[in-house]
Structures are given as C-alpha cells and as structure tokens.
C-alpha cells in the first residue's frame, strides 16, 4: 500500500529501484543525486522514508556523501546523516534567491572535488522544481570550472535543463516553472559573461497588459500588490507591503486590447522581485490570483552590449521587460487559452532612480523617499536592502545607443533568451503608433469566451496577497 502511494506521489519522476530500494531518487550524474525530501513523520508513508535514504547513502557512499536541503518548510534530524547536511532554504514553487546560487554551487563543487566517489544528494520537497533549478545551476558551474582534471565544457542553460529532464523524469520535463527556468538562464548569462552580481536599485513605474485580458465573466479588474522582504525585531524575515496598483474598473476581454497599470508613485525594487497579479471580485475583499513572475533588477539593467538587453540614457532612462504567456508562472499552464488569450503578455517598465521623470512632475528621488517612508511607517521591520551597497549604475555599455523614456510607450521587442525579452523603452516610430491606434495598445487577438471566475481562480485572503516581493542581493 505504501509503495503504491509513493509511486502515485512521484508522478512522472523516475524512481531508484535497484537492489531492494524503491525511492523517489535519481542519479543526474555519478556524483549528483536529485531526490524528494527524506521524511521522518507520517509523510514517510508516501514520500522517501528517511531511514531508507540513510541506508542507501551509507551502503553506496559511506562517509562520502553530503545532503543539501533546499526546503524552507521541512526539517529533519541531520544526525541521521552524520551531520553532513547543508541548508539552502528557498520557497516552494519559486526560483532560488539569486545570491544563494553562487554559494550553493561553490559548496557542492568543493565537496565533490575531494574525489570521484564523493556525491551530493540534493532535495526539496518533491525533488523536482527547486532541486532541478539548483542542480542545473551547479552543472553550469561545473561545466565552466571543470572537475577532476576535466576540461571546461561551457554548457548552456538549455543543455543542462535538457540533461536534468532526461535523467529525472520519464517525460523529459524537469524544470518547468517559467521563473525557475529564467533564473537558470540568469546564472548561465552571468557565467558566460563573467559578471559579478551587485545590488541594483530600480523604480518600477508601470505594467502594460497586452493582447487581450483574462476571460472573466464579470470583467477583469486587475491589480498587483508590492511587498519587500524585511528583517523584523524578532529576528525573522517577513514581507511588508510597499505599494500597489489597480486598473480601477472591470474591463471586458472582448472590448479591450490591453491597458496600463501605474502605481501612484514609483515602487523601489532591488535584487529579486516578484510580481503577482490578481482580479478583484465582485466582493471587494475577494482577490483571485491570476499569475505571477520573478525578475531580478541586476539582469534587467546589467546586460553586456553584445547581447540583446536593456539600454539606458544618461539623462532619462527607461527599461522594460516583456514576458509572454509562456513565461508567466501559472498562466503558462493555460494551453487551451480558456482564460488567457494566446498572445497574452505583460511589459514591466522601470527606470533608474536618478533618471526618472513623470508627467505629474514626481521625480525619482521624491518618489523613492515617499514610498520608503510609507513602508517604514506601516511596519516595525526594516528593509534588508542596504542603500550604501546599492549601485544605481552597475554597468554602462561602451557604445549604448541613447533612448528616451516616454509615458509608458509600447515596447520595442528584440529576440532575447527564453528567460525574458529585455528592451529599451524607446517610443515607436509614428507610423507604428498610428497602425496600432494607440501606443499603449497592441493588435487585437482572439479572446476566449468568459468563464466564471470562481471556477478558474483560487481565492486568497487579503492579508496574503503579496506582492512584488523584493530581496536584496
């Protein structure tokens, strides 16, 4: 019975069934193991029994294994593994914080280089998403540094994710969450271009929703909330709200090509940040989650001149990131286009703090101060972002073309990596704006028929609706 439950929970993941073992565990390489959490509670009935995991590691890799726990929601007695457990906690269904990736890769590399018979057993809860993202990042790291005298191979993000998918799952779908995949591309880009991560402060100015709206029977009243990771007086970290924006009135998918959501004041973000979009239901307290995505400010700004990326102007800078439906967490699952039109996309507009200016006359410095003061006055927590460590201009392209930052112009797209398409927000030529009718609008697309919101979205309490979540590097 327990074996059948474990098989059901594993879904399409490969299991280790050699000898008398039957574990949710796969060898990605001879030295890298990806597995589900070793459970020592009632979960052991349908997940990996911690005693069986210990037995496998002791029999096959005695004293030469190290366990890497990526769970923030699961703990166990590390003494069972002779104390050889490293903690790199991250939240489920989310990408790893960017500053954790290099230290994780170095830790695994330093352990494995002790000998060819040393192994690293890496796990989250299910042993697929978070585990896959970190395993892929390590494989990138190893391919650039070589191991045991091997020459560097300089693998790409696509290559390591393909390898992980083949070794971990039966359907070759390993890392599938768009934001997790994006962060693997981030790390690959950093390695290929030999970039050093530095905190980069930006001001989020608006979000353009393009090519139709989610099909909701009562009309779509879209909003997002902004939160920042902060250290509290009790020593714990929590999210505090620093801003929010809402479209203001319900809009019909059939009658609207898209619209711009602008916060009352620019929202300061630094490092990792999360955009979570909701629909406000007929009951004002009800918020139905639509989709979300993670981005990092360093990779919005710090693009080398020889790759598609962000451009900035010394006087007035506008940066934008366009994410298609397939690059948005949760929305990407709507393959039948029942809720989101096929061409659905968002463009996130931001600016460097010293270069921003709006039609209402609010400057970047004033906006930053006003938003920061409102956040600090509403919480006893302090931001983990140290302004003295933030770099407003972390990288200046040697020959970057100038671009002006207009009033939320339509994005000028370029072909980028699957992680995101990052472009300079220069206004389109006049004939293009006339062709589209308005520079905020894009071409019309076939909108799906509305369906009841209750059947499509999970309602969440008001206090849990985060969320641009930001963490400093």
UniProtKB/TrEMBL annotation:
Q: SMART domains of this UniProt entry?
A: PTEN_C2 (SM01326)
Q: Where is this region: Disordered?
A: 404-473
The subcellular location is: Cytoplasm
**Family in the record:** Belongs to the PTEN phosphatase protein family.
Q: Which organism is it from?
A: Macrostomum lignano
Instruction: Output this protein's name.
Output: Phosphatidylinositol 3,4,5-trisphosphate 3-phosphatase and dual-specificity protein phosphatase PTEN
Q: Which InterPro entries match?
A: C2_domain_sf, Dual-spec_lipid-protein_phosph, Prot-tyrosine_phosphatase-like, PTP-SAK, PTP_PTEN, Tensin_C2-dom, Tensin_phosphatase, Tyr_Pase_AS
Cite the entry's keywords alphabetically: Cytoplasm, Hydrolase, Lipid metabolism, Protein phosphatase
Q: Quote the Pfam families the UniProt record gives.
A: PTEN_C2, PTP-SAK
| Catalyses which reaction(s) | 1D-myo-inositol 1,3,4,5-tetrakisphosphate + H2O = 1D-myo-inositol 1,4,5-trisphosphate + phosphate; 1D-myo-inositol 1,3,4,5,6-pentakisphosphate + H2O = 1D-myo-inositol 1,4,5,6-tetrakisphosphate + phosphate; 1,2-dioctanoyl-sn-glycero-3-phospho-(1D-myo-inositol-3,4,5-trisphosphate) + H2O = 1,2-dioctanoyl-sn-glycero-3-phospho-(1D-myo-inositol-4,5-bisphosphate) + phosphate; O-phospho-L-tyrosyl-[protein] + H2O = L-tyrosyl-[protein] + phosphate
Q: What class of enzyme is it?
A: hydrolase
Instruction: List each copy of the Tyrosine specific protein phosphatases domain by range.
Output: 102-168
Hydrolase as a keyword of this entry, yes or no, is yes
């Amino acid at each position: 019975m327990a074996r059948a439950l474990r098989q059901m929970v594993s879904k399409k993941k490969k299991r280790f069934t050699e000898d008398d073992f039957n574990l949710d565990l796969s060898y990605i390489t001879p030295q890298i193991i990806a597995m589900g959490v070793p459970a020592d509670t009632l979960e052991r009935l349908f997940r990996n029994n911690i005693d069986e995991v210990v037995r496998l590691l002791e029999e096959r890799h005695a004293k030469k294994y190290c366990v890497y726990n990526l769970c923030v929601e699961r703990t166990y007695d590390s003494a069972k593994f002779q104390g050889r457990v490293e903690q790199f906690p991250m939240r489920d269904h989310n990408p790893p914080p960017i500053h954790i990736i290099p230290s994780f890769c170095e830790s695994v590399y330093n352990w494995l280089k002790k000998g060819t018979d040393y192994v690293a057993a890496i796990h989250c809860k299910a042993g697929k998403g978070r585990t896959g993202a970190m395993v892929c990042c390590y494989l990138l790291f190893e391919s650039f540094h070589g191991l045991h005298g091997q020459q560097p191979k300089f693998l790409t993000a696509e290559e390591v994710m393909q390898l992980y998918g083949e070794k971990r799952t039966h359907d070759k779908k390993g890392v599938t969450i768009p934001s997790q995949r994006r962060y693997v591309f981030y790390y690959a880009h950093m390695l290929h271009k030999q970039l050093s991560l530095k905190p980069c402060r930006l001001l989020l100015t608006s979000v353009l929703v393009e090519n139709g709206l989610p099909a909701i029977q009562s009309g779509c009243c879209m909003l997002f909330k902004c939160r920042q990771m902060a250290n509290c007086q009790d020593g714990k970290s929590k999210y505090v709200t620093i801003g929010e924006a809402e479209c203001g009135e319900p809009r019909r998918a059939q009658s609207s090509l898209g619209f711009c959501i602008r916060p009352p004041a620019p929202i300061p973000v630094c490092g990792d940040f999360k955009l979570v979009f909701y629909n406000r239901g007929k009951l004002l307290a009800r918020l139905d989650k639509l989709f979300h995505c993670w981005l990092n400010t360093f990779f919005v700004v710090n693009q080398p001149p020889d790759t598609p990326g962000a451009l900035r102007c010394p006087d007035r800078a506008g940066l934008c990131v366009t994410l298609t439906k397939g690059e948005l967490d949760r929305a990407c699952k709507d393959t039948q286009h029942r809720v989101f039109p096929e061409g659905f996309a968002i463009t996130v507009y931001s600016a460097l703090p010293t270069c921003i200016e709006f039609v209402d006359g609010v400057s970047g410095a004033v906006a930053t101060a006003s938003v920061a003061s409102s956040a600090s006055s509403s919480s006893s927590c302090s931001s983990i972002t140290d302004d003295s460590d933030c770099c407003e201009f972390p990288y200046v392209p040697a020959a970057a073309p100038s671009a002006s930052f207009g009033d939320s112009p339509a994005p000028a797209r370029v072909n980028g990596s699957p992680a995101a398409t990052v472009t300079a927000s220069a206004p389109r030529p006049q004939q293009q704006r006339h062709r589209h009718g308005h520079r905020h609008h894009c071409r019309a697309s076939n909108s799906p028929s509305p369906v009841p919101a209750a059947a499509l979205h999970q309602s969440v309490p008001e206090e849990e609706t985060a969320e641009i979540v930001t963490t400093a590097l």
